[in-house]
Amino acid sequence: MHLTAENLAARRGEDLLFVNISFHLGAGEALVLTGRNGSGKSTLLRVVAGLLRPEKGTVIFHGEESPGGRHPGEISHYLGHRNAMKNELTVAENLDFWRAFLGNAGSAASLSVEDAADAVGLSGITHLPFGYLSAGQQRRIAFAKLLVAHRPIWILDEPTAALDASADRLLADLIGAHLEKGGIVLAATHQPLGLQNTQELKMTGFAGVDAGIWG
Ligand SMILES: Nc1ncnc2c1ncn2[C@@H]1O[C@H](COP(=O)(O)OP(=O)(O)OP(=O)(O)O)[C@@H](O)[C@H]1O
Fold first, then answer.
1. What is the distance in A from the centroid of ligand 1 to the CA of 39?
2. For the whole model, what pTM was predicted?
3. Number of domains in the chain
4. Which CA distances in Å does 5 have to 34, 65, 78, 172?
5. N or C: which end of the chain has fewer CB atoms below 10 A?
6. Does some domain include residue 215?
7. Among 12, 15, 155, 191, which is best to mutate for testing ligand 1, by the most ligand atoms less than 8 A from CB?
8. Measuring from atom 13 of ligand 1, which residue has the nearest CA?
9. What is the pLDDT along the chain (215 residues), one digit of tens a residue?
10. Which domain holds residue 181?
11. Which residues have any ligand 1 atom within 6 Å of their CB?
């Protein structure tokens, strides 16, 4: 299984934000995007997730069940800045929705809603409306979404924002476990996640294109 991006370029507004970005990730490998605010990390993640069309270039996933290749967005989890949960629904209802909506990609097992809540340190609160939870608890439950439906690629935009130190470690451990099982991770982060087998890509924003850094 592998994910390959070749010569990706993206435009935001009038200007190119990055050009000629290429990377190759095999099973168990992670790409960490770094760079200052506005440097293009979220944009690149959204291109890989299929949420934004690149100006140029391709990104393709090859796996056992898709030897001919498919867009990684079809078999990825995308955790953006927002949690993608409904405040009025309970935690269990939100996670049940995502489990049914996303389905299970491949043969690997996913966790039950209670086990996923337990894995993020929040067992016993799944009956509460999502909107009642603290910001950090909401982020943990957003992460539990990744565990209720198996997807080989995790695309994570600032996954540990709003989290305390213990949750930081817990989520880093869950990401590490996903990699150990042969998953692929792309993450934008301002904090080190302490992951093994990690490539780093430093984003430079519009100025990088002008300076020829990506050219
Ligand atoms: N729709 C848009 N039109 C024009 N410019 C945009 C649009 N969306 C984003 N941008 C610009 O593109 C640049 C990259 O934004 P992006 O969200 O990818 O950065 P980032 O590296 O993820 O930043 P942060 O660390 O703050 O999350 C920013 O300068 C932003 O203002």
1. 7
2. 0.92
3. 1
4. 17, 19, 17, 25
5. C
6. no
7. 12
8. 38
9. 999 999 999 999 888 999 999 999 999 999 999 999 999 999 999 999 999 999 999 999 998 878 789 999 999 999 999 999 999 999 999 999 999 999 876 667 789 999 999 999 999 999 999 999 999 999 999 999 999 999 999 999 998 877 888 888 889 999 999 999 999 999 998 777 777 778 999 999 877 677 666 55
10. 2-210
11. 12-13, 17, 35, 37-43, 188, 203
